[in-house]
Target: Dioxygenase
Amino acid sequence: MQRRGFLTAGAASVAALSGIRATQATAAAPEESPTAAGDAPPLTRNRLEGPYYLDYDLNRIDITEGRRGVPLDLRIQVLAAGSGRPLPDVAVDVWQCDALGLYSGYERTTLEINARDKAPSGAAGQLPSGRHLPPDSRTTYLRGFQMTDGDGRVRFRTIVPGWYTGRAVHVHLKVHHQGVLLDGAYADGTTMHTGQLYFPEDLLADLRPVAPYSSNPYRRTPNSEDRFYTGTSMADGMVEATWDRREVARGVDGALTLVVDPAAEHVGHVGSRSSG
Model:
């Protein structure tokens, strides 16, 4: 598949997290070490792209655009399946909702869907099918891509996402390769992974009373009730998170190892082979 704009995705865990604080909590530490000699790292599961992906040319580390929320320093490393070698010069593209459950480019759409499904007559079947929807605004917050360095690593400065009806707290991502970075845009590449990242439940519980998350009017869906969530390993997309349990508002360090198949193509559309 060819893409005009930045192509992204894939990620991996970082060996060390910066800014670790006293009385810290670390959750969802991986049992496996994909980079250890002789290991065959487990392939990260592909997911649906969802309805809110926009192929914009936003090559940047800080994707917040001033959006309020608990700071998240998200570090991702992309490894090749089988060999476990780092993949340099691939584009990792992320997008997420804000603390109140809104996606940039889709404020009216997400408000309408959340309001409908929050009503007594709302049913789970009314949730977005995963098919792409046309944007209803030109906002671009909480979207962006980065190119991996020689060790297959990228870093994003963002916020911990909020939640909306029927989905666990998550971040979407894509990994693209074989393209060209020109004038801040990534063109003519192939999408080898489309996935979703999840967060540990104890972090989300600490987050609930903190502004602006405390103003989110929707019920938060636990990971265990999410239709796409499959488990707590990095292969399932679970972020290893570290934070100060006394003061989560100071920020969260997040790390993930993303293991992808460079020979595959997973665009994440409904009915495609990546739809699981």
Observations:
- The two ends are 19 Å apart (CA to CA).
- Confidence is low (pLDDT under 50) at residues 1-23, 29-37, 119-127, 271-276.
